[in-house]
Amino acid sequence: xxxxxxxxxxxxxxxxxxxxxxxxxxxxxxxxxxxxxxxxxxxxxxxxxxxxxxxxxxxxxxxxxxxxxxxxxxxxxxxxxxxxxxxxxxxxxxxxxxxxxxxxxxxxxxxxxxxxxxxxxxxxxxxxxxxxxxxxxxxxxxxxxxxxxxxxxxxxxxxxxxxxxxxxxxxxxxxxxxxxxxxxxxxxxxxxxxxxxxxxxxxxxxxxxxxxxxxxxxxxxxxxxxxxxxxxxxxxxxxxxxxxxxxxxxxxxxx
Length: 255
Known about the structure:
The protein has 255 residues and is of the alpha/beta class. The chain has seven helices and eleven strands. Strands 1, 2, 3, 4, 5, 6, 7, 8 and 11 form a nine-stranded mixed sheet that branches. The longest helix has 27 residues. The model has no long low-confidence stretch (mean pLDDT 95).
C-alpha cells in the first residue's frame, strides 16, 4: 500500500490562550506538522504553542483571506488541514482524516462542524452540519473572499470535495454577551463589504423583511426551536445582525 501523504495542520490565531491547547492536542494524532500563524497575540497563545512544541510564525493580520493563504503557504507539506483555534477534532473525524491521507482522492475534503453555544450543542437552525472545505491539496486551490465569509475554493476542473465522517467540535460563544459583541464587529465588516461591492441601496425590505425572514427561516423552518433557549437566542441575534448590517450600511451611505 502507498504511504499516507504527510499533513500540515495550520491554525491562525490572535489571543486564543483559552482554546489553542485543546485544538492542538486533538490535531496532533493526524499531523506531520503543527503550524500556528499568530497575529502578534498579547496573551499566552504563542507561549502555549511553544510549550507544546508547535512551530509558530508571526505575521501581521491583513484580513482572513490573506492570512489563511499566507498560513497555507508557510506549511511544510502540500496537504493542509486548516483549523480555527476554537475547533477540536473528534476521534471519528481523526480516523476519517487518516483514511483520506492513506488514499487521497481529488482536491479536498469537507468536515462537519458541531457548535457549542453557551454550553449547548446546536444541531438545528442551519448550524449543523455546517460543512466546510478544510482538508485540501494547496496546489489545487486557494482561500477566497472579500472581508468576511472566507472559503477555500478549488481551481476549475477539480472534482467536488468529498465529505469526511465525524465532527469538528466548534466551541463558539460562551455567553450571549460574547455573541452580541462579535456580532457588532462582524456587521460593521459586512456593511463595509457591501459598500465595496457597490451594493448600497437600503430599503424597508432590507431593514424589516430580511431580518424577519432570517428569524423565521432559522427558528421555524430550519428547526431552531428544537434547540431550546440556544436556538431562540441564535435566531433572534442573527435577525438583529441582519438589521444592524443594513442599518450600518444606510448610515454609511448617508454620511
